[in-house]
């Protein structure tokens, strides 16, 4: 197990600390799909009692990140293509509506921030700094909502689609669409600047749902990670 222990934040509750550590290691595939874990194991790694770990496991199970098999054990959940499609539909529906509304604005309040994100992505795209690349990608998409003054929606999406993050990380590691998504960010931004809602929403939808197409290629490269192969 290649488990990375994160530093505890000031005033962070123990349960939330456990969840943050677990989510990080699941998302970045330090804990691999299908890998067996236990409360004792995680308690020892984090030097904590089993109680907050047990509580964290309950939350992780609700978010589809772990599976509990009675009398057998607890496992990191496999990639489920059908579930991933549903979550992508949820995310895509919200972002398409948002980008259409952004195109109605006279100007973009965060135009320079959008540009800086894209420039950083171009610099980092071949560096394999997956954590930073993911953060930049999230920031780009979150800014679309922030243009409308919606600052809570990104966290709602994040809380309900963390299941998809590790799929995005796996895609980066597999060098699938390595730079294509940056080009698409540029196009989305240009369409928003031009107030072209039709093309902005169209390319955004394709941009998000490309992950559906990539799942087939990923399942061939990493068959042991996918539910349909187990």
Automatic annotation (TrEMBL):
GO terms for molecular function: DNA binding; DNA-binding transcription factor activity. Gene3D superfamilies: GntR ligand-binding domain-like, Winged helix-like DNA-binding domain superfamily/Winged helix DNA-binding domain. Residues 194-221 form a coiled coil. PANTHER family: GNTR FAMILY REGULATORY PROTEIN, TRANSCRIPTIONAL REGULATOR, GNTR FAMILY. It comes from the Bacteria. InterPro entries: GntR_C, TF_FadR/GntR_C, Tscrpt_reg_HTH_GntR, WH-like_DNA-bd_sf, WH_DNA-bd_sf. Residues 12-79 form the HTH gntR-type domain. This is Transcriptional regulator, GntR family. Keywords: Coiled coil, DNA-binding, Transcription, Transcription regulation. The keyword Transcription applies. It holds the Pfam family FCD. The keyword Cell cycle does not apply.
């Amino acid at each position: 197990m290649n488990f990375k222990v994160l530093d505890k934040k000031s005033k962070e509750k123990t349960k939330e600390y456990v969840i943050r550590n677990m989510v990080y290691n699941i998302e970045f595939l330090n804990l691999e799909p299908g890998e067996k874990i236990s409360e004792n194991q995680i308690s020892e790694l984090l030097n904590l009692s089993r109680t907050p770990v047990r509580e964290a496991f309950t939350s992780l199970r609700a978010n589809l990140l772990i599976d509990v098999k009675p009398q057998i054990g607890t496992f990191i959940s496999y990639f489920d293509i059908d579930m991933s499609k549903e979550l992508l539909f949820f995310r895509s529906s919200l972002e398409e509506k948002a980008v259409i509304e952004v195109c109605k604005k006279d100007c973009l309040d965060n135009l320079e921030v959008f540009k800086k994100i894209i420039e950083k992505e171009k610099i980092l795209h071949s560096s394999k700094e997956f954590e930073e690349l993911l953060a930049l990608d999230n920031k780009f998409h979150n800014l679309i909502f922030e243009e409308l003054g919606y600052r809570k929606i990104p966290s709602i999406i994040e809380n309900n689609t963390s299941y998809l993050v590790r799929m995005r990380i796996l895609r980066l590691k597999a060098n699938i669409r390595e730079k294509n998504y940056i080009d698409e960010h540029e196009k989305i931004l240009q369409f928003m600047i031009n107030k072209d809602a039709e093309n902005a929403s169209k390319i955004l939808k394709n941009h998000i749902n490309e992950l559906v197409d990539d799942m087939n290629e990923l399942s061939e490269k990493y068959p042991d990670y996918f539910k349909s192969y187990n």
